[in-house]
UniProtKB/TrEMBL annotation, chain A:
GO terms for biological process: response to antibiotic. The chain crosses the membrane at residues 20-42, 57-80, 101-122, 142-164, 171-190, 226-247. It comes from the Bacteria. It is a multi-pass membrane protein. Its main location: membrane. It is found in: Membrane. One of its GO terms (cellular component) is ATP-binding cassette (ABC) transporter complex. GO terms for molecular function: ABC-type transporter activity. It comes from Actinoplanes xinjiangensis. Pfam families: ABC2_membrane_3. Keywords: Antibiotic resistance, Membrane, Transmembrane, Transmembrane helix. This is ABC-2 type transport system permease protein.
TrEMBL record, chain B:
Keywords: Antibiotic resistance, ATP-binding, Nucleotide-binding, Transport. The keyword Nucleotide-binding applies. Residues 21-255 form the ABC transporter domain. This is ABC-2 type transport system ATP-binding protein. One of its GO terms (molecular function) is ATP binding. It comes from Actinoplanes xinjiangensis.
Length: 271, 307
């Protein structure tokens, strides 16, 4: 078993190395970060209406939530559909214990990409905006919050990914994700939204991620850490209960002729 | 030395072993359509079995059921003594599957991927079969030594296919499945591939099941050819046996006094002997032709589809 975990870890690290040395992948990670930093630069002197917190600091922290959702949820779904489409998943299935190794590898990859995204957002962002708090409490909060966010997002992303037949299809996920982010108080104070919209947004992890991250980085942010942990924990439990079952079902159906059929469809699209 | 020892062991094994594959009354239905209606065959250790048949005859369905990738509707199947529907990881480790490739793992390098996929098999080594294949040896065998450091997405079609074969055999399988392995090969790549299959069955006495459209390939590789048509095995045997089974007659052509003659006979040898006894040196340009595998195949398939 420990040998298998090592193989899976190595797989994840190899894929992580591939993605951070791939020019178009790097561009994909940095483009939203660059947009965000540009916007932070323009709004660096504004304050959040009715509070002492600078708008820049608020936006930076909230945007971390968006980056994490994109890299944790959407890209998990996209990796999965891509790997089905190009036959990587079938290859894993044809290898003894290959599916376990594949899953461990994917978790390492996604977690790695999430951490890297956070660092490249936070490091330059923290230099540009004022009013971020970095103390013991910040790090303690991050220590429990980050793994919980990963646990809430990864299985959910895998479940969502299994619903799509193609990677192009899975890209549609970006739309609801951005819509949900927009109503989750990421770009402006949550309290200005109509009550029912606030209610809807509180069902999804984005709002709670934003709230948790703000409580770690912003002074004077309302503390609702118990609720953050509870809601994210609930998402993690539901995801972890569903994901293995749905993935197993998806993998069971995988066969050479299915991959060939998808390849033909994809080729037809190219032509 | 090791290989000699290994093949002696395998030969001894062949004498006492049960069949590697046993299929009886295999049925597969998709809705109302019956794709396989009672497929029967078995394969002995070290045998190369080629599954031939027109498109839609059920070749891929059959091979996917044997690989454990597809659930059958009925019948009895044993692969390495196990029902593929309940095959565990140890069973899977003894199989090699050469998939039709597309672009999986395109960012990986050749050696990197082979070493990674090989690592899964290490836990399934046995005293007489060390798994996985030593990667350098494997690269040498499939002719990818020079491309070991190449990014897979940039390989040529032929190199990519060799890599697929290398992945299929990296765990030193007892049984190897190949589904239309040489589609899109140029003649040279095809010949290299045939050499590779021969080398594999000689070195490791691996049992091979492959599907193809290419009759020439079937004739070159197969110990036994199975012709699948309308969801059944309509004929089974070596290329020679098949043509005897179908045609029965051979065609004799010759010239005599500047004229051409053609004669069909069940016993062509006897006919030719008599021909020389009668006419001696007057006979020229002698040619004796048995029905080719192509003619045999066309006849068998047409018969099956007509019925």
């Amino acid at each position: 078993m420990s040998r298998l975990i090592r193989i899976g870890l190595r797989r994840g690290l190899i894929e992580l190395r591939h993605t951070v040395t791939n020019v178009s992948d790097i561009f994909g990670y940095l483009f939203p970060v660059a947009l965000l930093l540009g916007w932070l630069y323009l709004s660096r002197d504004d304050d959040v209406p009715g509070s002492e917190v600078s708008l820049g600091a608020y936006s930076l922290v909230s945007s971390l939530a968006l980056m994490l959702v994109i890299s944790g949820l959407t890209s998990t779904a996209q990796y999965l559909t891509m790997d089905r489409e190009d036959g990587t998943l079938l290859r894993a299935k044809a290898t003894p214990n290959g599916m376990t190794g594949y899953l461990i590898g994917k978790i390492v990859l996604v977690a790695g990409v999430m951490v890297i995204t956070c660092v490249v957002t936070l490091a330059p962002g923290a230099l540009m905006v004022d009013g971020l708090r970095f103390d013991v409490d910040t790090w303690v909060t991050l220590l429990w919050l980050t793994p919980l966010i990963m646990l809430a997002l990864l299985p959910a992303g895998a479940v969502l990914g299994s619903f799509f037949q193609s990677a192009r299809g899975a890209a549609i996920l970006m739309l609801p994700v951005i819509a949900l982010t927009a109503i989750s108080g990421v770009f402006y104070a949550h309290s200005v939204l109509p009550g029912w919209v606030q209610g809807v947004s509180k069902v999804f992890p984005m709002y709670w991620m934003g709230s948790g991250l703000r409580s770690a980085f912003l002074p004077g942010e309302p503390e609702q850490r118990l609720a953050v942990a509870a809601v994210l924990g609930l998402w993690a439990v539901i995801g972890l209960a569903l994901a293995p079952r749905i993935l197993r079902r998806m993998a069971r159906r995988e066969s050479g002729s299915l991959v060939a059929a998808r390849r033909e469809r994809a080729m037809a699209r190219v032509i | 030395m090791y290989y000699i020892f290994d093949s002696v062991l395998d030969m001894l094994g062949t004498l006492v072993d049960t069949p590697v594959m046993e299929v009886s009354d295999l049925r597969m239905r998709y809705g109302d359509r019956e794709v396989l209606s009672g497929v029967e065959f078995s394969a002995a250790p070290g045998e190369v079995v080629v599954l031939l048949g027109p498109n839609g005859a059920g070749k891929t369905t059959t091979i996917e059921i044997l690989e454990g990738f597809r659930m059958r509707s009925g019948g009895d199947v044993r692969v390495l003594g196990v029902d593929p529907a309940d095959g565990g990881e140890a069973w899977r480790a003894r199989l090699g599957v050469v998939l039709q490739s597309w672009r999986d793992h395109s960012k990986w390098r050749v050696r990197e991927l082979l070493a990674h996929l090989g690592a899964y098999y290490a836990a399934f080594s046995t005293p007489d079969k060390r798994r996985p294949w030593v990667i350098d040896e494997l690269l040498e065998v499939v002719g990818l030594t020079a491309a070991a450091g190449s990014v897979i997405g940039r390989l040529s079609g032929g190199q990519r296919r060799r890599l697929d074969v290398a992945i299929g055999i990296v765990g030193r399988p007892d049984l190897l499945f190949l589904d239309e392995p040489t589609v899109g090969f140029d003649p040279e790549a095809r010949r290299d591939f045939h050499d590779l299959i021969h080398r594999m069955t000689d070195l490791d006495s691996t049992t091979v099941l492959l599907t193809t459209h290419d009759l020439d390939e079937a004739e070159k590789l197969a110990d036994r050819i199975l012709i699948l048509a309308k969801g059944r095995i309509v004929a089974s045997g070596s290329a020679d046996e098949l043509s005897r089974q179908v045609a029965g007659e051979a065609e004799v052509r010759w010239t005599q006094d500047g004229r051409r003659f053609v004669h069909s006979d069940v016993d062509a040898t006897k006919f030719v002997r008599e021909l020389f006894q009668q006419h001696g040196a007057a006979v020229g340009d002698l040619e004796v032709r048995r029905a080719s595998l192509e003619e045999t195949y066309m006849k068998l398939v047409r018969e099956a589809e007509g019925s």
